[in-house]
Amino acid sequence: MQRAEMEELRQKAADLTALQAIGPRKKPRIEPDIPSQTSNGLSSNSNSNSLLSSRPQLPLKPRVKRITMKDCIFLLEREKEYCKSDLLYKAYLK
Q: Cα separation of 6 and 56, whole Å?
C-alpha cells in the first residue's frame, strides 16, 4: 500500500516536471487596443477596457511570411506580363 502511494507521488512529480519543461500550453492572447466608439465619443464598454488595461501589454511584432521558389514560379506563370519573361525562365533553372 505504501509502495503504491510512493509510486503515485513520484509519478505526479515527474508529470509536473515534464509540464514545466514544456512551458505554457497556450500563448498569451493579444487583444487589439481599439475601443468601440459611440455617437458621443465615449467608450460603450468601459468595463472590458479597464480589464484589458490591467493586463500587461505585449508588443505586437509583424508576422513573418515565407514563400518558396515554387510559389514565385506559380505567381509568375499566372501573371500576364511575366508569363513569358526572362525572370520566369531563370527561375525554372534554379
A: 41
8 Å CB contact between 52 and 31: yes
* Rg for the chain, CA atoms, rounded: 27
Question: Which candidate, 76, 58, 59, places its Cα nearest to that of 67?
Answer: 76
CA angle 8, 19, 12 (to 5 degrees): 10
Structure-model confidence comparison of residues 9 and 39, the more confident one:
9
Residue 55 reports pLDDT greater than 70: no
Q: Over 9-42, what HEC string results?
A: HHHHHHHHHHHHHHCCCCCCCCCCCCCCECCCCC
Q: Which residues pair with 92 in a beta bridge?
A: none
Predicted TM-score (pTM) of this structure: 0.34
The pLDDT of residue 27 is above 80:
no
CB 45 within 8 A of CB 36: yes
